[in-house]
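Exam revision sheet. Question 4 asks you to relate a sequence to its structure. Input first:
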Amino acid sequence: MAIVKPFKGIRPPKDLVEQVESRPYDVLDSDEARAEAGNNEKSLYHIIKPEINFEEGTSEYDPRVYEEAARQFQMFQDKGWLVQDEEEHYYIYAQTMNGKTQYGIVLGAYVNDYMTGVIKKHELTRRDKEEDRMKHVRVNNANIEPVFFAYPDNTVLNDLINRYAATKPEYDFVAPIDGFRHQFWVISDAADIKTVTEEFAKMPSLYIADGHHRSAAAALVGAEKQKQNPNHKGTEEYNYFMAVCFQASQLTILDYNRVVKDLNGMTTDEFLAALSKNFVVEKKGEAEYKPQELHEFSLYIDKNWYSLKAKEGTYDNSDPIGVLDVDISSRLILDELMNITDLRSSNRIDFVGGLRGLQELKRRVDSGEMRWALALYPVSMKQIMDIADSGKIMPPKATWFEPKLRSGIVIHKLD
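Answer key, structure tokens:
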């Protein structure tokens, strides 16, 4: 059963939240962070992308950069730009995109639940990325940014959330760039805190939706601290890391599409003929065409769109991995026809999140940068949970969640 706890969040004062909050560290590069921070000394980028405080070209992995993160974090607290709550709370964090709102509960997730598989993952992690985030957690002794979890729908928690959502939020702002709305409430009532803890205790599993490297890093640092403390009791704050947990049915997963630089020596006609072995290929013309259902793909090449429908027998409905469109396209197109066998390392392929739309695929192909593009039907949260429950791992670049969690709304200290 899932163990969670409230915590004393470190947060910006209400009048400063829009100056402090930022996009997460891994959705923009150093130059973009430097530009977005601009002259705003209160921007969280000074903590999560601290290389912007050095000369351009400074590596984000430079030891000075991690030290600068800790210096900035302490300065933000000293100057009152971040203030710790006096009592332990749960929090509610709502995001609104395109008129749809999803509500998450911000909580302390149990390190041992990650280690024992109660908190389930569906992606592989890379040790170098884990180590980078572990250094950041260690040097700050805090989870500066949350991870993104899903939990099975729960009527009791849904009713509690709706009750708070009917009240005035602590924070309420529209983020720049993406234009999404973000709201935040503090759960301070003792009975409500008890309810949250008890309802999560009934859940056999929680699911990492987004932020596998952050989850791994946070849990591994917590486990390190357990071993390093000769008086470890199991109740210390480092036994928990910060997560925002959303009801699975509320989450929006967008398509995660592919653009490829070449045809592996084939002409367009030869490529289309080769595709017809495993797909029903139908030309749709110049107007943008989006996949309408599972196992249908949209191909863009030579200024035309095509529908590709996987033929019966090319996938296994009883296999939670084999039934995925990312697996079908990887096996039957990228591997078999393009000889692209490792999506993580090949320089012949790139990936485009669905928020950018089909027009971005068209732009990159029409510009000559890429030869063709493939749009996929989005993975469902049920598919992700089925895969996690089966203990299997999804193919890389399979999911794109929107909206992303904003950073700097609340922070969790490990002591």
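Marking note for examiners. DSSP finds 13 helices and 21 strands in the chain.
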